[in-house]
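Much of our argument rests on the idea that a fold can be written as discrete symbols. The record that follows shows the chain in one-letter code together with its fold in token form.
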Amino acid sequence: MSGVRAVGAVGVVTRGTTNPNRLRRMDRWIADRHAWQLRGAADPLVVDLGYGAAPWTAVELLGRLRRVRPDAEVIGIEIDPARVAAAQAYARDGLTFRHGGFEVPLPGGRRPVLIRAANVLRQYGEAEVAAVWDRLRARLAPGGLLVEGTCDEIGRRHVWVALGPDGPRTLTFATRLASLDRPSDLAERLPKALIHRNVPGEPVHAFLSAFDRTWAAAAPLSSLSARQRWTHAVRELRATGWPVLDGPTRWRQGEVTVTWSAVAPRE
């Protein structure tokens, strides 16, 4: 029952759509780019907020993070009590499930080093996003990370924001390159803070337009592979002045990360 307010928790019940491996791109990025935070955490606790009708994403997240930190712990939090009850069959050492919402209820006053909220804010209004971000960031351990974004049903296209205690830091686009005609196809998966800003005059529109141009210019490389074309297009995008982060190792995965300040909505 999407959009129904849940009793005793902050937020509304989502559609709950989920599939195995749907969040693999986000998971791999977290495990690579933010492994240092997990390794350095006194309490390696991670929250999968709004995991949906089935707990696949929480199960998979634990497996991927334990390659980085063997004692990592994941708590899946869902606003629908029936989903929490159904998930209990998947609980194991390091993986538990709790009822809750944006208040992020955790035992013993614990604070997670990471909160992942994927496909949770899609049904909210753009004006509501900042307050939710603030509320979730306030629940983090010092120096913690909030990752919030949206992907398609099978995880081929995904866009997410990474936020620290100081606010939004980066925006990452990740895709299965074989499914892509042009980079701006990813606009349909922009997080709620940006989905309505992909219009002329907004920075995210300018970024995607510039990316389309470097992608088109790299067309001759498509005879080698879509990966070669993407990597060249990202390199050229950075050469034109866009603050693109990381390097070819991440770009070859079908990723590109840009500083948030370059794509943030205009007031």
Q: What stands out?
A: The CA atoms of residues 20 and 56 lie 6 Å apart.
